[in-house]
Design goal:
The protein is an all-alpha fold. The chain has 12 helices and no strands. Helix 5 packs across helix 12.
Length: 200
C-alpha cells in the first residue's frame, strides 16, 4: 500500500495517522526517536509493508507487470492499489475522500516541525496539489509514477509506468478488491496488539 492505503488502514487518531506516513520517511533504528502512537504508527506501517510484500494476491499483481518493469513491480502495485482505494473510497470509508484528505493535511501542517526533513520537503506539494484526492484519476497516478522516476538517481522505466495500469486495469482492480479485506483483517489484529503496548 502507498500513502493513502496506509492512512486508510491506520487507527484514526492524529498521532497514528502521522506515524502511518512517517513509515516511508523514518528508516531503521530511527524509529527509536519516536514514542507513543507516532512510533506505533511507524511500526504498523512496517508490518503492513511486510504483510503486503509476501501476500499471494499482491504477488499476483506484481506478476502482471511486464518483464521490463518487473524490478519495480512492488512500488508500482502499491501506487495502483491507492488508485483503486481512492476510486472506490466511499465503499470502504464513511468520510468523503476530499474531506479526509483535508483533515490529514491539516494535521500534518500543524505538526510540521515534528516531521523529518525529508517529509517536510514533500509536504508543501502534497497538500497544495491534494495528492490523495488526485489518486482517483489515472492522471494522478501517472504524476505519482513520474515523481518516483525523478527521485531515483539511476535510469528507470517508471516515467511511463501508467501503461502497465492501463493494460491490466481490470486485473489489478480485481486483485485490489481481493487484497483489501485481507490486509484490513491483518491490521485490525496488529493494531490491537500495538495499542496494548506500554506507552513510550
Amino acid at each position: 500500500m502507498n500513502y493513502l492505503g496506509h492512512l486508510y488502514l491506520s487507527p484514526d487518531t492524529p498521532d497514528f495517522l502521522v506515524g502511518s506516513l512517517l513509515g516511508d520517511f523514518v528508516k531503521g533504528a530511527a524509529v527509536n526517536d519516536y514514542t507513543g502512537d507516532l512510533r506505533r504508527g511507524i511500526e504498523l506501517h512496517r508490518k503492513v509493508d511486510q504483510f503486503t510484500d509476501h501476500h499471494d494476491i499482491f504477488r499476483q499483481s506484481v506478476a502482471r507487470i511486464s518483464q521490463s518493469r518487473r524490478r519495480y513491480g512492488g512500488i508500482m502495485v502499491d501506487v495502483f492499489y491507492d488508485h483503486f482505494l481512492a476510486k472506490h473510497w466511499l465503499e470502504f470509508h464513511p468520510e468523503p475522500l476530499p474531506d479526509f484528505a483535508r483533515r490529514v493535511y491539516t494535521i500534518l501542517l500543524e505538526r510540521e516541525l515534528e516531521l523529518p526533513e525529508t517529509m517536510r520537503l514533500v509536504l508543501p506539494r502534497l497538500t497544495s496539489e491534494d495528492w490523495f484526492s488526485s489518486y482517483r484519476e489515472t492522471s494522478g497516478i501517472d504524476s505519482v509514477m513520474k515523481r518516483m522516476s525523478r527521485r531515483i538517481k539511476r535510469d528507470n522505466p517508471l516515467h511511463a509506468a501508467i501503461e502497465e495500469l492501463e493494460q491490466e486495469y481490470e486485473g489489478f482492480e480485481a486483485d485490489f478488491r481481493q487484497f483489501l479485506p485481507e490486509v484490513k483483517g491483518f491490521v485490525d489484529q496488529v493494531a490491537d496488539q500495538l495499542a496494548s503496548k506500554v506507552q513510550g
